């Protein structure tokens, strides 16, 4: 058996070896949603695929991981008023992603990372992770690529804080991964209403301790937030390298960790009696 990286490249008979090697399953979740006038609706999915391709090259010998298919439609109802956005109800996503985790468990794998590239999926993936831990005694870690941060000094603090959707960082990542899909004539600075709220109100925020439910038009009428005009492929490559390195570190820690034993799982390992 070759050391493949993607779930679909294995035969049914080869998953037993993955289980024996305590391989870590990776479930990438993304979105198909508007990203302003300069980036395509595929942005979050393209970033997910690009990151995984770089991760495949960066994995050290002996650290086994296997990647499930990218989930290209997530919870994007905050963008639903913009053409091209696809979204699924949270209860549908919870059922679907939990079922995928159950499939990982049936294949004999007991550790999984759900890695997200769209903020709207965060609450859903946390529910799924807890359900798989409780039902099947799996170790499930949830994360998002941007939680690994950016190289120190590469992005100004205000841009990191406010440029959360199709801003400098995402535009730079797309310039690195899919420059053919970036509409350069539409690049500009898209200011965030969050900055104005912080200036004018003591407690009221779109995100923070006291959250106001929002849709993207509440943040910026053009559907993007941040200084996309400052993006570059060079910056994108630096961010990719930094975040992939962070993911490798996380996978190493997951591989080392021994979860607290729980009750017998409801679904047996492949080859075990029910």
From TrEMBL:
SUPFAM superfamilies: Creatininase. The keyword Heme does not apply. One of its GO terms (molecular function) is hydrolase activity, acting on carbon-nitrogen (but not peptide) bonds, in linear amides. Keywords: Hydrolase, Metal-binding, Zinc. Its cofactor is Zn(2+). One of its GO terms (biological process) is riboflavin biosynthetic process. Belongs to the creatininase superfamily. This is Creatininase family protein.
């Amino acid at each position: 058996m070759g050391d493949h990286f993607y779930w679909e490249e294995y035969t049914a008979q080869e998953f037993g070896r993955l289980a024996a090697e305590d391989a870590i399953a990776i479930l990438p979740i993304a979105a198909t949603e508007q990203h302003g006038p300069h980036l395509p609706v595929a942005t979050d999915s393209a970033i997910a695929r690009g990151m995984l391709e770089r991760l495949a090259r960066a994995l050290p010998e002996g650290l086994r991981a296997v990647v499930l298919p990218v989930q290209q439609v997530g919870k994007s109802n905050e963008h639903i008023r913009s053409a091209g956005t696809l979204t699924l109800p949270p209860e549908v996503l919870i059922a679907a992603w939990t079922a995928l985790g159950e499939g990982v468990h049936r294949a004999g794998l007991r550790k999984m990372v759900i890695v997200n590239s769209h903020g709207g999926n965060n609450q859903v993936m946390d529910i799924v992770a807890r359900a798989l831990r409780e039902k099947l005694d799996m170790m499930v870690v949830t994360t998002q690529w941007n939680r690994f941060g950016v190289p120190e000094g590469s992005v100004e603090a205000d841009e990191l804080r406010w440029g959360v959707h199709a801003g400098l960082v995402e535009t730079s990542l797309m310039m690195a991964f899919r420059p053919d899909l970036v509409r350069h004539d539409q690049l500009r600075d898209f200011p965030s209403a969050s900055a104005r709220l912080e200036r004018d109100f003591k407690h009221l925020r779109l995100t923070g301790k006291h959250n106001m439910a929002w849709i993207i038009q509440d943040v910026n009428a053009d559907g993007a937030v941040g200084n996309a005009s400052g993006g570059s492929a060079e910056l994108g490559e630096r961010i990719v390298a930094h975040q992939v390195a962070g993911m490798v570190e996380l996978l190493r820690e997951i591989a080392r960790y021994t979860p607290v034993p729980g009750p017998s799982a409801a679904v047996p390992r492949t080859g075990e009696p029910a």
